[in-house]
Structures are given as C-alpha cells and as structure tokens.
Amino acid sequence: MPKPQTLAELRESGYRRRSVKHEIRDNLISKLRNRQKLFNGVVGYDDTVIPQIVNALLARHNMILLGLRGQAKSRIMRELVHLLDREIPVLAGSEVNDDPFAPISAFGKQLIAEMGERAPIAWIERDSRYVEKLATPDVTIADLIGDLDPIKAARGGHLLSDELTIYYGLLPRANRGIFAINELPDLAGKIQVGLLNIMQEGDVQIKGFPVRLPLDVLMVFSANPEDYTARGKIITPLKDRIGAEIQTHYPASIEHGIEITGQESWIERYQDSDGAKDGRISFFIPQLIREIIEQIAFIARQDRRIDKRSGVSQRLPITVMESAVSNAERRSLMNAEPQASPRISDVYAAIPSLTGKLELEYEGEQLGADRLAHDLIRKSCSEVFTERFSGIDFRLVLDHFNNGRTLTLSDSLSDDQTLKELGNVKGLIDCARSGNCEKEFPGALIASCELILEGLHAQKKLARSEERGKASYSQAAPERQIKRQTFDDWSGGRLN
To answer: Considering the domain boundaries, does residue 154 fall inside one?
Structure first.
C-alpha cells in the first residue's frame, strides 16, 4: 500500500499521532511482551542497568547514564533508536520534523495555512531521528538551540524579527526523536541553562527574540563521575529535570568481559601469504589467552597504583587482544604459516596498546607504565595458572632448570620451532596437555606451555628475563640468607 503523500491522505489512512516518549513506550512494551532483546551488543547489564533503563522509558523520563569510560554508555544511547517506529510522517521541507497535525515551526504553520489538506508529506526513517552531540566547552547556545540567519532573512525578504529567519540548532532538529549529549559536565553552565526551558516549558529566546518551541523529544545524557570535579559539573536545576540517573559498571565476571572483547575486537582477518592455503591466514585464539587478557583489566581495576576515579576502560582488553593477534599474524606471515594463534609472548608484545589506557597514581608513575604493564600481565598469568594447573606436579619441569639449563623463546619462532624448543624441557608438554588446553591446536599447546613457565616464574620458582622479543627462563636465584647480628657481635668482631 503506497504511503500517504498529502495531509488529506494521511488523515484518511487513520494515522494516529503520538509523542515520541509514548511511541518509545509502546514499542518497548511490545518488545518486552515478545521477549525480544532490547540492546544489541550490550553484555552484562541484563540484571542491573537495563531494568533501570526500561523503568525510565516506561515512565517517559529523560535520563542520564553515569559511569566510567568504556562502559557502553554511548552504545546504549544509540541503541534507543530501535525503540522508535521505522518511519514517521513529517511536513515536507520542515527543518524540525513538524508533525503534520500539529506543526510547531513558523514554516510548518504557514505551509498548512497556505495549502491546507494538500500540504505535502515526507517520511523519515528512525535513524534520522537520533541526534547526538559531544559536549565541549566551546559549544554555544546557537549550536544547540539556533540563531538568527541574516542571509536567510535577505533571501526570503523577511525582517530579522521574523521567526522564518531562524537557523535551527541540533535540538530543534531532533524534534520527534532522541537528542543525546555525551559528557554533559563538559557543557558550559550557561549552555546547560539554555536546556532548562526547552525540557520543561518548551520556550527559548534566540538573540532576545522569544520563540515558542514545544519540542517533542526524549533527552538522554551521559557523564563520567570524574568530570564532576575534574572538568565541570551538571548544574542543579538541570539535574532536577532529568528523570532518572542510571549507574553503569564494568563487567562483573571474566566470562562477560571475554564475551565483550570477542564481540568488539577485530580478530576476523585475512591476509595474502605465499605459504598460507588459498592465500588466507586463519586465526585461532586459545581460551587461556582470552582469560589472561581479560584478567589484566580486572586486576588493573583493583590495583592501587592505577587511578580508580578514571577507571580502566573495556577498550584495554579489546586493543590488547587486537595487538596480540597482530603480533601472531606478523609471525605467521614471516614463517609462511596458514594459522595465526596468539601466545603469551604476544600479550607482552601488546604492551604499547596497554600503557596508554592507564591513568597512574603517584606510586604507578614512580614505577613507570611499562613496568606496571609487565607486572599486570605477570599477575594475570599467575591467576589463570593457579586456576588451570592446581594440583599438577611440576617437579620434572623444575628439575630441568635446576640442573642449570636455560630455555629461550622468541615471539618470531614458528609453531614447529617453538614446540621443538618446549619439547626439550622434560615433562613440560605433558603438563600443558593436562591444563584444559585445546589439544588439537599447536597454538593452544604453546600458549599452555608458556603459561606454565609464567606461572612458575610468578611463584618465584623460575627466573625470567626479557630482551628484544625474547624471553629466557632459568633456575630461580636462591634467596640470600642474611645473618642478623647484634651490636655486640659486630662490635666484638671489630674489636678483636
């Protein structure tokens, strides 16, 4: 059935106008009844954040998502678009998506007055009804609300006091849709004041000219708690007009973190390689590598050397995963191997992707970001090692090193060469196979062997040194036995 193209046809079609908050509420109710997923790609919020968002939308509230960086605030705001109708009718040519039955702009009212039931109708899709603005200190009221346009006045032959000369800002253009502001505290206080009347009464002043704009809009904001003191604040009257303040959080479990990282990281790649079958390299990521990378973020969020107010973004494990996969890809290309599989050595190679994600406290700054990153990886390996290899006897492995032998591994060695080197350590591969690794994949076996070496190093049973992409493992240095002497012993020795 063709869509109505005039006001008369729209009226005859039985189209029923609704406010955008009612529209979202109705579509949300339908999704809840049909048990449909509300927010695609949002993991770990099913029992915490999402129920609060649902409550706010059912109550037709404007809301703010409050949380540290990397907690999917922007994604949630953008996913709200899917609660809008697929398309809605507007008066053709309207800058503010005028409702054909109740226009709010001077243009829309004039069009209805001149053409009546013949007024042309256009249809806009829901993606066009979402407007987002990143708040910065240089944002002006003209950017958000609008300004008088002398050129528009001259071309139309209008007085500057005529409403037809207004160039509308982002907020009026979001009419009958969703208007989102990211990092709200960064918006200057006087600009935040400009939002007050729009949210409550619907009227504004543009260059002293009063304009009545009863906008139909759902307003959604995001903010980082750190911003309240570090860069700015949300003025109290504006906070009072926001119906719901919803706290977001980082993944509560390693499993959720792994799911998010797997979903967001770019690991499905193909590269031409002379040695790769069909010119493609396949990628396999051992489960223990996923656990180690995710554990780094969990440990970092609890580390006193890292600023907790700033947080440790979920982008950290994502970028570390991508960099580790890239190092594995580089190795496969150099060795003409058909499969790339990241190892623990590749996680160390990804340190440049890790250090920039950490805001350090004084103690961390004294230590240095690079050393801190090494320490986080070591602790992460220790956690996963303890979980996977609890109760396994490593005496044969330790005996190999206690006899003065050293093992040196390079992140550039092929899988076959690396397995050959690891096989020289008696009992190592057998222990690795018992650690729940994916035995059919050489990359998983290598990673499991490396985890044992890293775990024994973390327990101070092996020494580890690193230089230019190579890691060497050897016998742990015996602890120095320091004999405590009394002052009398010392003085007596000196006197004698």
So the answer is: yes
Going by C-alpha positions, the residue among 206, 357, 331, 197 that lies closest to residue 275 is 331
Looking at the structure, do residues 262 and 243 belong to the same domain, yes or no? Answer: no
236 and 369 fall within a common domain:
no
Task: Take residue 395 and report the two structure tokens written for it.
Answer: 């005496």
Compute the 3-state secondary structure of the chain and give helix, strand, coil in percent, each to the nearest 5: 50, 15, 35
SS3 155: helix
In 105-186, beta strands by DSSP E:
121-125, 130-134, 146-148, 166-168, 177-182
The mean predicted confidence, pLDDT, of the chain is 86
Q: How far is residue 97's CA from residue 122's CA, in Å, rounded to a whole number?
A: 9
CATH of the domain at 212: 3.40.50.300
Q: Which residue has the tokens 């230019």?
A: 468
Q: What is the pLDDT of residues 259-310, one digit of tens each?
A: 999 999 998 876 444 444 455 788 999 999 999 999 999 999 999 999 888 8
pLDDT greater at residue 137 or residue 175: 175
Residue 198 lies in a domain: yes
Q: Are residues 342 and 305 part of one domain?
A: yes
* DSSP secondary structure, 281-302, as one string: -EE---HHHHHHHHHHHHHHHH
* Contact by Cβ (8 Å): 311, 250: yes
Q: What is the pLDDT of residues 59-87, one digit of tens each?
A: 999 999 999 989 999 999 999 999 999 99
In terms of residue numbers, what domain contains 293?
254-475
225 and 268 in one domain?
Answer: no
* 318 and 217 in a common domain: no
Three-class SS state of 24: helix
Which of 188, 221, 247 delimits the end of a domain? 247
What value does the mean pLDDT take over residues 146-168? 64
Q: Is 482 a domain residue? A: no
What is the four-CA torsion angle of 19, 25, 28, 33, rounded to 10 degrees?
-130
Q: Which amino acid is at 145?
A: I
pLDDT at 397: 94
d(CA 63, CA 220): 5
Kind and range of the H or E run holding 51: helix 49-58
User: Does residue 491 surpass a pLDDT of 50?
Assistant: no
The tokens of 84 are what? 């809008």
Domain presence at residue 489: no
Does 453 lie in the same domain as 320? yes
| Total number of domains in the chain | 2
Residues 314 and 369 in one domain: yes
DSSP H/E element including 87: strand 87-91
Quick check: 438 pLDDT over 90? no
Q: Are residues 277 and 303 in the same domain?
A: yes
Please tell me the distance from the alpha carbon of residue 354 to that of residue 131, in angstroms, as a whole number.
33
Instruction: State how far the Cα of 126 lies from the Cα of 475, in Å rounded to an integer.
Output: 65
Q: What is the pLDDT of residues 191-219, one digit of tens each?
A: 888 788 777 666 666 666 666 778 899 99
